[in-house]
Amino acid sequence: MSSDKFITLAIHTYDYAVGLRRILSEHGVESELENVDMADPKPASGVRVRILEADLPLALKLVESPVENSLIFNSGGHPKLLIPTDFSPLSLQACRVGFFLAELIGCEVMLLHVYATPYFDDSLGSTDSFVTESVDNEVHKTLEAGSRQQMRRLEKQLRSEILEGKLPAVRFFSTCVEGLPEDAILEYARENSPQLIVMGTRGADRKATDLVGSVTAEVVDSCRVPVFTVPEHYSFDKATKLEKIVFFCNLDHQDLLAMDAFLRLSLDKEMEITLIPAGDASSRLRSRMDELRRYFSGRYTMQTFHTHIIDDDKDYRSLFERYVTEKGVEMLVVPNKKKNIFSRLFNPGIAHKILFEKDIPMLVLPV
Questions:
Q1: What is the per-residue pLDDT across 59-88, written as a single tens digit (0 to 9) for each?
Q2: DSSP letter, residue 135
Q3: CA-CA distances (angstroms) from residue 251 to 102, 224, 280, 288, 335?
Q4: 12: β partners
Q5: Phi, psi (degrees; rounded to nearest 5) at 174
Q6: What angle do CA 299, 300, 305 make, to 5 degrees?
Q7: What are the φ/ψ torsions at residue 276 (nearest 5 degrees)?
Q8: pLDDT tens digits, one per residue of 91-110
Q9: Structure-model confidence comparison of residues 303 and 343, the more confident one
């Protein structure tokens, strides 16, 4: 095969093709665009994205990455940062953190509230069904009106804090929808591909009882968009640095994509990043970790990279807790692999475990 031969990677709409070309360029992959309809010089509905044949393996990994696809979809318009809210103090805190993050990464904010109507059994007689349907409609109208009223109050409070200089002047919108919260959030993410989702988590003293049915845990587990979790007592403002980071590694090519996506969200900020393996220890682990550290150090010269390996599986959590405290770690970054239902039930991922154990913000990147 000729290494300088251009081949067609994909055919997309013009806006998507431009976004894909930008992502490819950021990873050092040369590409060109070509109209499918060569007789029409204007951007066509179908545009070929062509790359060098030698770059095909890396290009395919980028195309298949959910993180990269989120950034590509957002390239045609204003990128969105999604903040689900239930109007509690916890979700208000997530809103405040989300506004600062939106300013940092250049996003508009979408506030989403999900209200659920009561479930009615369909196995009723015709007369009962008619009465129930009437009651159901009234309940639905009442819940919808109440949700919109609460959303208006939240919007008023956020605008007031913006005028007082407590929050950055970020453009924001809101919507209220009916359904189960986790399902509605995931559906919005599938349809709109926000650049980031910001959600609150309970304090460490309450997380054990909140494990089952946690909306944040369900979204972290299933969403194909990056999720930033905000602990209950966490505060964020312009002085917040987030410079000491722990990055959990899977020790495969997905670490490269996840690190690249994370650092693009951080806007070239100088950070001290410690790489910690998420898998079991092995005899080759240290050499592989050193190799990964050298690769990242050579590619991202603004950042300082370290490695840390916890050898004691039985005491892993307490040793990790001690490391986080001693080093003053300010954020955890977790490339979260999508698992099937049996793995999720019987072997929860590291993002799930950390979510319910640490009062520290966490960025979960789907891989």
A1: 777 776 655 555 555 544 578 899 999 999
A2: H
A3: 30, 20, 11, 8, 11
A4: 47
A5: -150, 155
A6: 110
A7: -125, 125
A8: 999 999 999 999 888 889 99
A9: 303
pLDDT at 159: 93
Distance from C-alpha of 342 to C-alpha of 129, rounded to nearest angstrom: 38
Q: What is the pLDDT of residues 32-62, one digit of tens each?
A: 888 765 555 554 456 888 898 888 877 777 7
Q: Which of 227, 230, 223 is nearest to 202 (CA)?
A: 230
3-state secondary structure of 232: coil
Question: pTM for this one?
Answer: 0.72
For tokens 């990464």, what's the residue?
Answer: 105
Cα–Cα distance for residue pair 338/145, rounded to 1 Å:
37
Q: What are the phi and psi torsion angles at 187 (to 5°)?
A: -65, -45
pLDDT of residue 152: 94
The strand pairing partners of 335, in sequence order, are 365
Task: Give dist(CA 346, CA 334) in Å, integer.
Answer: 19
What is the residue whose two structure tokens read 């990994």?
61
Report how far residue 155's alpha carbon sits from residue 87's, in angstroms, rounded to the nearest whole number: 11
The CA-CA-CA angle for residues 51, 53, 55, to 5°, reads 70
Instruction: Compare 138 and 361 and report the one with higher pLDDT.
Output: 361
Measured CA to CA, the distance from residue 250 to residue 199 in angstroms comes to 24
Structure tokens belonging to residue 259: 């690190």
Q: Which two tokens stand for residue 147?
A: 């949700």
> Which structure tokens are listed for 365?
């990147």
* Cβ atoms of residues 85 and 94 within 8 Å: yes
